[in-house]
Design goal:
The complex is a heterodimer of chains A (114) and B (113).
Chain A lengths: L3 E4 L2 E4 L5 E7 L5 E7 L5 E9 L2 E4 L6 E3 L9 E3 L8 E8 L9 E2 L3 E5 L1
Parallel strand pairs in A: 2-11
Antiparallel strand pairs in A: 1-3, 3-8, 4-5, 4-9, 5-6, 7-8, 9-10, 9-11
Chain B lengths: L8 E5 L4 E6 L9 E6 L6 E6 L4 E2 L4 E4 L5 E6 L8 E11 L3 E4 L5 E6 L1
Parallel strand pairs in B: 1-10
Antiparallel strand pairs in B: 2-7, 3-4, 3-8, 5-6, 6-7, 8-9, 8-10
Classes of the chains: A mainly beta (114), B mainly beta (113).
Chain lengths: 114, 113
């Protein structure tokens, strides 16, 4: 079945450590997104990518980095510069760079601080 | 950017229709309305979207008012599995193509047995 796979489901970070969250899609979607969700709140955009080897900052990019070397993969690194990383991280994608096709989401990664 | 307003919570009896309202009075002419739902600790699930015509799919119906300032999501026969937070979203366009979905607080729908 086609879909978006995020791993791991749960992740723990130590002080000063960088961690990488995986997002893979087999939907042949062009655009991919990373969102952060805090308890009781909506989603906030971290980074997005419309095509391979190109990505743009969202509203809360500080302390995060991404890469888009392959169409199907868009990993997110939470760096030690992100002082409040505890949150639920969601990856999404949609079919084309233009138009209004809906974004589809993975099941998320919950990141906590040790 | 267009913002949406939804009631924080609603109850619905199992088997009855659930009607979830959304106000988006500042929506612009080319912005779509999307509905998603989220069950605790899972990713949001796409339900339906529309521009100005009413839409129906296997999950729900979307009724958009003629002035596009509000819409209603209808789940025709609610089941216990429909208990979730429902988000009404107007997409914000980044750089002409990429689209940010701004999720607000949503409506917690509880389907009662």
């Amino acid at each position: 079945d086609g879909g978006i796979t995020q791993s791991p489901k749960y992740l723990f970070r130590k002080e000063g450590q960088n961690v990488t969250l995986s997002c893979e899609q087999n939907l042949n979607h062009d655009a991919m997104y990373w969102y952060r969700q805090d308890p009781g709140q909506g989603l906030r955009l971290i980074y997005y990518s419309q095509i391979v080897n190109d990505f743009q900052k969202g509203d809360i990019a500080e302390g995060y980095s991404v890469s888009r070397e392959k169409k199907e993969s868009f990993p997110l690194t939470v760096t030690s510069a992100q002082k409040n990383p505890t949150a639920f991280y969601l990856c999404a994608s949609h079919r084309d760079r233009y138009g209004n096709q809906p974004q589809h989401f993975g099941d998320g990664t919950r990141l906590s601080i040790l | 950017d267009a913002k949406t307003t939804q009631p924080p919570s609603m109850d619905c009896a199992e088997g009855r229709a659930a009607n979830l309202p959304c106000n988006h009075s500042t929506i612009s002419g080319n912005e779509y309305v999307y509905w998603y739902r989220q069950i605790h600790s899972q990713g949001p699930q796409y339900i339906i979207h529309g521009l100005k015509n009413n839409e129906t799919n296997e999950m729900a119906s979307l009724i958009i008012t003629e002035d596009r300032k509000s819409s209603t999501l209808i789940l025709p026969h609610a089941t216990l599995r429909d208990t979730a937070v429902y988000y009404c979203i107007v997409s914000i366009i980044f750089s002409g193509s990429a689209r940010q979905l701004t999720f607000g607080s949503g409506t917690q729908l509880t389907v009662l047995p």
